[in-house]
């Protein structure tokens, strides 16, 4: 699965109810691919290619780690502890991803 397909899957598995009242930008710097960002705004989710000027949190990983987390094969916290995933900005927001998107 390509990185673009992984993000398409994330968008399809978006939980709008969990995003009520939120206004966040999750940026994904994929080291061996492109940068993408997801804009979560009051129950909606829009995927954009490229960097955002002011992301709420930036997650830095390679495409293999991204695919593992989205498929449910890799635990995001374990990837973080193992150094496969880095976060810049509000790191606590990264824990919200599991609520906002149905993984696995």
Describe this protein with a few key phrases:
SCP2_sterol-bd_dom_sf; globular; single chain; SCP-2 sterol transfer family protein; Nonspecific Lipid-transfer Protein, Chain A; alpha+beta; 5 helices; SCP2_sterol-bd_dom; five-stranded mixed beta sheet
Descriptive notes:
The longest helix is centred in the N-terminal third of the chain and has 10 residues, at 3-12. The mean pLDDT is 93. The chain has 104 residues and is an alpha+beta fold. It has one domain (3-100): 2-Layer Sandwich (Nonspecific Lipid-transfer Protein, Chain A). The chain is 32% helix and 30% strand. α1 runs parallel beside α2 (63-71). The radius of gyration is 12 Å and the shape is globular. The chain contains five helices and five strands; from the N terminus they run αββββααβαα. The chain has a five-stranded mixed sheet.
User: Considering the protein shown, what is the CATH homologous superfamily?
Assistant: SCP2 sterol-binding domain
How are the strands ordered across the major sheet?
Answer: 3-2-1-4-5
- Biggest sheet statistics: 5 strands, mixed
The overall average pLDDT, rounded, is 93
Strand content: 25-35%
Distance between the termini: 14 Å
The count of DSSP E runs of length 2 or more, i.e. the number of strands, is 5
Structural class of the secondary elements? alpha+beta
CATH domain fold name = Nonspecific Lipid-transfer Protein, Chain A
Low-confidence stretches: none
Q: What is the subunit organization of this protein?
A: single chain
């Amino acid at each position: 699965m390509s990185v673009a397909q992984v993000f398409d899957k994330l968008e399809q598995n978006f939980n709008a109810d969990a995003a009520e009242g939120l206004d966040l930008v999750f940026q994904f710097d994929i080291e061996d691919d492109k940068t993408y960002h997801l804009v979560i705004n009051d129950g909606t989710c829009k995927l954009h290619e490229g960097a955002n000027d002011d992301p709420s949190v930036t997650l830095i990983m390679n495409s293999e780690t991204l695919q593992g987390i989205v498929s449910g094969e890799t635990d995001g916290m374990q990837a973080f502890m193992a150094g496969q995933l880095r976060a810049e900005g509000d790191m606590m927001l990264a824990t919200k991803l599991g609520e906002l998107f149905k993984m696995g």
